[in-house]
Amino acid sequence: MKYFEKIKNAPLKEGALILAIESSCDETAASVIKGGREILSSVILSSMTEHIKFGGVVPEIASRAHTTAISQAVEGAVKDANITLGDIDAVAVTYGSGLIGALLVGVSYAKALAFSLGVPLIPVSHIRGHVSAGYLADKSLQPPFISLLASGGHTAIIDVKDYYTYDVLGGTLDDAVGEAFDKVARVLGLEYPGGPNIEKLAREGDNNIELPIMLKGKKGYDFSYSGLKTAVINYVHNRQQKGEDYSKADVACSFQCSAVDILVKKAIKAVKEKGYNVLSVGGGVSANGYLRQSLEKACKKERIKLVLPEKKLCTDNACMIGAEGYLQYLRKNFADLDLNAKAFVELTAGGENE
Ligand code: KG4
Ligand code: ZN
Q1: How much is the pTM?
Q2: 50-66 pLDDT, tens per residue?
Q3: From its phi and psi, is residue 112 left (phi > 0), alpha (psi between -120 and 50) or beta?
Q4: In ligand 1, which atom is closest to the CA atom of 287?
């Protein structure tokens, strides 16, 4: 019998063991997740140090690094989970969004593994994975809730109506928040990745530079980080051209406050407007200490329950792919062996309202 015919009709197992693979950017990650909520293992290998001198992730270097790291990541995840490959019930893999060559390494590996084990292959959207990190952070988390997504590629406020139905209330009209952090960092001469370095520098500065208010006068949940980024860049270039002194720490702090405060404000507004009482947060920027503190403070004041995954579940990892993979497993969203990587996947892909 052909592979897909066989797995399509395979009975589902409660508490299934999902082996998840993530390779969309510079992290080669593998994880074993039980029943979508329990992390049995998590391996994250990164090629970050190879990209630093270029000021950003170089796709070809990332792809090559994945090819050498993927076996180690998967073998490590299986070993750390104290299981054997034969115990795996399904293989979940990020098929997009991300760098196409990087994604292909994970997708090809996952296909071969699923086929050889005779188990389902589950295609997972990276961004949906970031949302599902919340289910690992709080085992009792259940929709409906609002998810604030803040990563290098996305900024969005999502109404998670049920496990599969997302209503995207707003998103960025131009740059993503993480992208703005990285670009501002570059102007300040900080190493890639910019986010954590801006955070570090901002601790030594003050929020004393006036920056434009984002989408002034416009209601709704959209964001625009391009104007903010340009204002910071202009400020720095002006000072440099005039030969005037300026404090890089103050620039970092003022930018961080402007970039983060609006995320908190809009996320809280969405929770209240929808009449929910839970806010979950995901994506690399949610590892930012100032954002985390601001959310904690605001949620406490508004009596909103905050689901804030630990930092290593906010940045790219395979656990979140396993959590989302389990949800897709339950609805039998299985792929055949012609599954391809996609550079761009819609926020709603993999859901009921796809
Ligand atoms: O979610 P992620 O790891 O990858 C994407 O899916 O994009 O997010 C990466 C982004 C980068 O722009 C990085 O600078 C940012 O998250 N980031 C941070 C922090 N840690 C990572 N931004 C601000 N503060 C941080 N501590
Ligand atoms: Zn990500």
Answers
A1: 0.96
A2: 998 888 899 999 999 99
A3: alpha
A4: 26
